[in-house]
Structures are given as structure tokens and as C-alpha cells.
Amino acid sequence: MSLLEGLTPAQRAAVEHVDGPLLILAGPGSGKTRVVTRRIANLVQQGIPPRQILAITFTNRAADEMRERVEQLLPESHVWVSTFHRLCVRLLRQYGNVVGLDSNFSILDTGDQKLLVRQVLSELDFDPVHFAPDKILWRISNAKNDCITPEMYQRKLEETIGDHMQMVTGKVFERYQQRLLEANSVDFDDLLIHTVTLLSENPELRATLDARHRYVLVDEYQDTNLAQYKIVAALSQQHPNLCVTGDPDQSIYGWRGARIGNIFAFRRDYPEHVVIPLEQNFRSTQSILQVADQLIGHNQKRMAKRLVTENPDGDPPQLLICPDSHQEADAVARQLRDLVETGEYRWSDCAVFYRVNALSRSLEAAFLRQRIPFQVATGVAFYERAEVKDLLAYLRLVHNPSDRSAFLRVVNSPLRGLGKTSQNRLVEWADREGLTLLEACERAKEIPKLSKAAQVKFPVFARMMGELSLAASGSVGELLSSILDRTRFLQQWEAGGSEQDGDKIANVEELVGAARSYDEHAADEISLEGFLEQVALVSDVDSIDRTTGEVTLMTMHAAKGLEFPVVVILGLEEGLIPHERSLREQNRDELEEERRLLFVGMTRAKRRLFLTQSRMRSIHGRTMPTIASPFLNEFPIERVHCDGDEWEFAQPWLEQAEASPPPQEPQLATLLPGDLMSKLKTGADLANGVTQGKVELQSGYAIGMQVRHPRYGIGTVVNLQGMGLNRTVTVRFVDGDRVQDFVSKHAPLQPIGVG
DNA sequence: TTCCCGTCGTTTTTT
DNA sequence: ACGACGGGAA
Q1: What are the two backbone dihedrals, phi and then psi, of residue A196, each rounded to the nearest 5 degrees?
Q2: Picking from A50-59, A152-161, A249-258, which range would have the lowest pLDDT averaged per residue?
């Protein structure tokens, strides 16, 4: 098969590009993965050694998909496809000593991080109630994303009038970082910033890696933060064969430091670059694309760009309006069931997205009630269970004996009478003597004021840990079971026999199973490192399996990069979409990010798109009336009232608001150099030409008119609202009490006379 | 040292 | 409404 088969001219140009920097501006559904994988295959066909090609993604899922698709085109090619974080782990395992890390460093999860901040707070004598560890951690993480070191943070603090929280954060940051290094540990952000340091402070190493990875590809470039940007730049200096793909309209990670500007800066950074916009959408129907396009058109900071497709019109998107979240969930379940029962869709074709994870609950309940098979994208949940984390901490401690977080997690779990008091004495003494906690255990007798019992038990614990090793066990699975034996781990719950106890035992067994399957998979390259890395770097989205025949439930963030024939987006309400945090203090950028998020959600849909709005929603346990999302005024949509009669009360939130016209010309000229701008405008003009070709029809409906709908049968027009594009016609159908609004321009209604 | 109970805060999104 | 955390009792 030719690599160029079935491609548009733009796609073909991207696939054929070999040397030099390339920016692919890929709108949703534009066949980006297809183009990127074929381009990789083409590089190899042109004689470039696969080992010189490095593709970087954000999620494991994206990496797996890309790797698989490259393998299909080029079996046994072994192109390196990795996430940013894995890439960094790999570099740091090899060269981390330069930044003070031993190759067996541990990766802390958020729970460990929080605990560490708590410890640091207490060491520094700050009140953890007033200075919430979460918030401090958030600030530290933000600083790290911007490559700000503790010293820089402190210096900045001296120059400005920082608030109290900043001062505390500065102090905690410094000590936190020091503690991490002492424990030979890193947090997620460290993986990136240590790599940045590594590359910037070692010119020869940087040059070596630059030469080794001559062809670098970066997916979702609009979501890179400063650290990631620097890593990519460092690998593309002497050999700037850098290909980045992205779409500014799909930038949804600004809140965690992503800089949408990185994609605009590409031209500045690589003046000899080529830009290829992929604007044709192969995924969605016209009518879905139209609403998404109108929505995103309301963003001010944006490149002028239109979405075009040659796909059929399809069914118009609908807004399901429900009295409360319970009925909302039922309505969604019913809607999906209806679609599946037509035989046109399978459960696995359907997905439900929401802004916050909390919204999945009512849906899960409804799906259980109605016996609809579903899976929720929450992979981390398993690794967050206490018993699982404990066992993993044992592994971490075996692998990295200086891992303090792991030590403190397991030293008294299962309970062995080594409580807080004894632990504190141990830690204090170990710090004074400059020993690791395990070393201190062995010399427990020397610790002042330590109870007799603890003086005996600490060394016993240390001896047990000393006897555990991967070498002795042979495999991770075996190592785990010998940990289970030695610690009598399962005895904690075997006596109980309650349901929760059973769950815990089952979780432990599942982890052992995961370890054994890792052992098999890794074959002769079994390492504790490999297994721990695998579990440390999983994310929610990695757990979803498209082959199980189930409806998928996930956040809109997690949905990026996926597509489904049927998509439902829950909770189009102010405070939810857009999220209330983006509404505070008139933060326009955040509001635009919320709009992009909804845009991402909508553009996942191939054929059917449903939005929902519940008129009541309980938040923090209190049930409150909701306000419709302001975004609903930005595109026309059919409204379906999912409760029987309520519609007749002219509730203000039920009325079709005038859709506000999109602002004339998005202003982005300052961010966007002329060349790129003109190319994009051409595409936009083209798209405009297409839409302008359509003639605006007079609606031709009247109240009382009988109409026929291909799906819902015969009904009566009961209301008309709005003008022009947004003219809607409300029909009450004879069958099943259904009342529905149609955008009259698209309504598949056939007048059959006046009743 | 552990366990139980009451109080408090908590919610964005993720590698 | 729910879970985490802290304080007090066993």
C-alpha cells in the first residue's frame, strides 16, 4: 500500500515532509494520527534509521495508539514512541547522577507529595490548617511548570510584595525539594524539570541526544508547558527536524501550565519552518461541526479558521433539558438505549462526558438501574487504594532504600506496634545522624527515649526489608508474594470477613496479578523499576478499553484525542461548563479555555451529539436551581424537554435565547506572523464560501400546523421563536408526550396541513 | 497505640 | 453527602 493513498493534498504534503521543522495545524478529526504515523513510515522508507526517530505524546494511550499504528505500517521498526514523562524517566535513570539522582530514584504520587508537604510544614512549624498542603503543593507545581527553582521563587518574593501564603510556600518549596533529593525521589513535575536541568547544564550530553534523536515529533504541542518546550527545543538544535502537531482551539491544559503560545512561537524559533494546516474534518457530520464551529468562533484570542467537512448533514444535535440530575441520568440512559435498539449503534459506540468527575455518580446509578453496560475512566482509583499503595510502597522501599515516603507508609502497616511517637523519634535521630530511616532502624538501640519494644521492633523490620530483593525472588510477582508472606499482609482482613475486607483482599490479588502479567510481558528484562514506573505513570484514560462493548464515561479532558459515534455531554450549566473558577474575577482566558473544552467534547462526536442541562443540581450536598450555560446562547440547538409537562410553564431558562453573533474577526495578528495568517485565512475564506452558498429559507411554519417527523411521527406546532439562523419551531408529538424544539432551518419536518 | 466518633472542608480538569 | 483528620477514650 502506498503511504500516500487516500490523502488530501495537505495531508500528503505533511507525510512527504522529511527534513527541517514542520508545524501541522490539525483541526479535530483531520486525520492527524494517520498523517503522523504515515510520515514516520515515510521517513523510514527514505532510509532514516528508525532509532533516530522519537515521537512524544502526553498520554500513554496516545503513545500506544501511535506505536501500534506505526507497527502496522512498518512491522519491527522499533520507532521510539513515548510520553514526555516516560522519556524523562528514561533519561534520568541513565544520566540522573548529574542532577543528584541515583538511577533507582522513586516517583512520588500525589498522596506522597501531600504527606511530604505536611511533614515539611510541621518541621517549619507552620499550621497545616491555615496553610493547606493542597494549595501549597499547587503553587509549587505551578512554579515547577514554569521552571522556577526554590531560589528563584525566594528571590521573586523579595522583589515583590508577596502574601503570607507565598512566603510560606517559598520556605516549604525549598525544604520540600531538599527532602525529595535526600530520599532519592522525584514528583511528576520534577521528571520534567530535572531533565531540563540535565540538558541545559550539559552541552555535550545535549548534543549527543540531539544527534541521537534526529527526527523528533511532538503531539498536542499546544499543551506543552515551559519545561516540555525546553526539552523539545534542546533535542532540536543541530538537527531541527522537528515536527509538531497541534490545534490552538484544543488547548485545554492552561491551568496546569501549558502555554498555548508555544505553538505560535514555533515560527520565531524555527524561521525556516513549514506550516501545513489540516482543515478538512473526516469525523463529524455537518450539523455537529457547525455548532462546534459557531461555539469556538466566540473566542477572541484565536486564529481565523473554519471547520469544513464533506460528510453528510446528519441528525441535528439536541439539548436534553431535565428537572434534576436523577432524571437527567435516566434520560441519557433512555436516549442511548433507544439508539442501540435501532441496531445502528452498539453500547461501545457511546460515550458520556462531564466537566467534573463527581457528575459520573448519578449516571452510574442510572446505568446500573437500567442495566446498561458501562466503564468509567478512573484507572488511578485502583492504585489509590490504601492496601495497594502500601504494597507498592514495600516495592519502592526494596528498590530504593532511601525512599522516606515509602518507609513511613509501611513501617507500621500491617500494624507492628511502631506508632507515631516511635516513628518521630526515629526520624529525628536519623536526620541528626544523617542516616536513612532504614539504617537508623538497625541502630535503634542508640536512639534516646525510644521504648524498649520499639528498640527491638525497628531492627526486626529493617532485617526483614534487607532480606527482600528482586534478585532473591526472581520476579516482581514472586517478590510481592514473599512480601505478603513475611508481613502477614492479608491477615489484616482475613479475620474480618466483611465486604470491605473481601474487597481489600481482592485488590491485593489484583495487584499480584498485575505484577505477574508484567513479569510475563517483560520476559527477560524484569525490573522493579519497570513495574513501578508503569504503575506510577498510569492515568485515568489509560484504563479504558474500547473493545469491551460498554458505554464509556469520562471527563472532557480525558476525551481529547478520542472519537465516538454517539456523544453525550452532561451539565451545560453555569458554574459547571464553564466551571465557576473560570467565572471568578472576570478571567477571560480561563473562560475561553472552558469554551475550548466544550469544543473538544463536541468534536469527539461522529454522528450524534446530545448536551444535557438539569434545572436542579446538588452541589456540596445542597440542591440548587441552575442557570443555563452561557455557551448555549452561542449556537442554535434543538431543545428536548425530558419531563412530561413542565415545559408549559414559561420558565425563563427554558426560553430560546438569542444566539449572540460570533465576533467579526478574531484578533490574533499580534501572535500570528503574516505568512501563517494568510494561509489560514485562505482556508477560512474557502469555508465561508461554502456556507454562504446556502440560501436562508423562510421558516414557513405556523402555530397549530400538523407536521410529520421521520422518527417521532405526527405532531402539532405549538410555538415559534427567534429569527433567522436561530428560528426555532416547537412541536408536541402525539406519541409519548414528546415536546421538542427544532432549529427550523434544519428541521426534518414535513407539513401535513392545519389541524 | 489504636480505635471510634465528631467536625470540618471539599471539588476542576492530569502526567 | 462524603471522606479525611484530629481528639479523646479504651
Answers
A1: -60, -45
A2: A152-161
Q: What values do phi and psi take at A605, rounded to 5?
A: -80, 130
Measured CA A557 to C1' B5 distance, in angstroms: 38
| Active-site option among A389, A595, A604, A617 | A604
At A185-225, the pLDDT tens digits run 999 899 999 999 999 999 999 999 999 999 999 999 999 99
Which of A428-437, A441-450, A454-463, A537-546 is predicted least confidently? Answer: A537-546
Cβ neighbors of A386 (< 8 A, separation 6 or more) are none
CA-to-CA dists, residue A338 to A88, A334, A345, A350, A375, angstroms:
47, 6, 10, 12, 19
Q: Distance from residue A129 (CA) to nucleotide B7 (C1'), in Å?
A: 13
Is 0.90 topped by the overall pTM? no
3-state helix, strand, coil in chain A (%, to 5): 50, 15, 30
Q: Return the bridge partners of A610, or none.
A: A318, A568
CA angle A37/A40/A41 to nearest 5° reads 90
Catalytic entry in A8, A12, A33, A286: A33
Cα separation, A572 vs A612, in Å, equals: 6
Q: What's the CA–C1' distance between A359 and B12, in Å?
A: 12
For residue A699, the model assigns a pLDDT of: 55
Distances (CA, A) of A416 to A59, A106, A457, A501, A553: 40, 25, 8, 19, 41
Cβ distance A528 to A517 under 8 Å? no
For A702, residues 6+ apart whose C-beta sits below 8 A from its C-beta are A717, A720, A754
* A453-505 pLDDT, tens digit each: 888 889 999 999 999 999 998 899 999 999 999 988 888 777 666 666 777 78
Rounded Cα distance between A519 and A507, Å, is: 18
